[in-house]
Design goal:
- It is a single chain.
- The chain is built from eleven helices and no strands.
- By secondary structure, it is mainly alpha-helical.
- The protein has one domain.
- Helix 2 runs antiparallel to helix 3, helix 3 crosses helix 7 and helix 7 runs parallel beside helix 11.
Length: about 260
């Protein structure tokens, strides 16, 4: 058991160090959400006919701000799993597979590493709160950090499930973009979900990211569509399922 715990820690630490040393990755993962927040958000706010808390532009930017944090966590979490594909291509994964640790420990270590990286990336977005009129105190930050880790763990496990059978980074990128973009746009990150047509409302409600965004919005600007218990329950259940699948599917891989 001690070997497995050490293996989980080592894999977690490796992913974290790779992230912290890759400055271009940090910058790139920050710029995209900021562009959505400041450029797309500002543009959309001028053409909307519905009102948000606050006045006009600031009100809409405040509304989408938690959704942009969710976007940052989504993309960082899922693409952190691309390291599995890279490790397989260079042969490092095969070396890990023959190490004296259980394969489920490898999957857990990757999930924890990816979710920690996503948490840090989401925390970076907090520095932009004053630009959109969001006041975040220390108490809010202490609540948001574990919530971002919680949401990131579910999404990272989803990425690991996909990466378990991907043989090229190009294929992984294409498939995950095909999945992530609809997840983001159908999460309520950019628009309220209270008055959607039936077919769109159904798609939004079966999207697990919807509840993650709602959870972040509740903690950030005290606005939510579902109850906190429902948000935590759905995200937690999705996370457990994805983690279990990641462990099962990863354990079947040959490296």
């Amino acid at each position: 058991m001690s070997n497995n715990l050490m293996g989980i820690y080592t894999i977690w630490l490796r992913d974290l160090r790779r992230f912290l040393r890759d400055k271009s990755r940090i910058v790139g993962a920050t710029v995209q959400p900021v562009l959505f927040l400041l450029f797309l958000g500002t543009g959309l706010s001028k053409g909307l006919t519905i009102s948000f808390p606050g006045d006009d532009q600031a009100g809409y930017l405040t509304f989408i701000y938690p959704g942009i944090i969710g976007m940052s966590i989504l993309f960082t979490s899922v693409f952190s799993a691309i390291s599995i594909v890279w490790d397989r291509e260079v042969g490092f994964l095969k070396e890990v597979m023959v190490a004296p640790i259980a394969r489920w420990a490898v999957a857990i270590g990757k999930a924890l590493g990816g979710s920690t990286v996503a948490m840090f990336q989401g925390a970076v977005m907090l520095i932009f709160a004053p630009l959109v009129g969001v006041k975040i105190g220390l108490g809010t930050i202490l609540i948001l950090i574990p919530l971002m880790l919680f949401v990131g763990l579910s999404l990272t496990s989803m990425g690991i499930v996909a990466a378990a059978y991907m043989n090229s980074m190009q294929g992984f990128t294409v498939i995950m973009n095909f999945i992530m973009l609809p997840m983001f746009f159908l999460s309520g990150a950019m628009f309220p979900i209270s008055k959607l047509p039936l077919w769109l409302g159904v798609l939004v409600r079966i999207n697990p990211l919807t509840y993650g965004v709602d959870l972040l919005r509740s903690a950030t600007i005290t606005m939510n569509h579902f109850s906190v218990a429902v948000d935590i329950g759905v995200v937690g259940t999705f996370g457990l399922i994805m983690t279990a699948l990641a462990v099962i599917m990863f354990s079947r891989q040959e490296g």
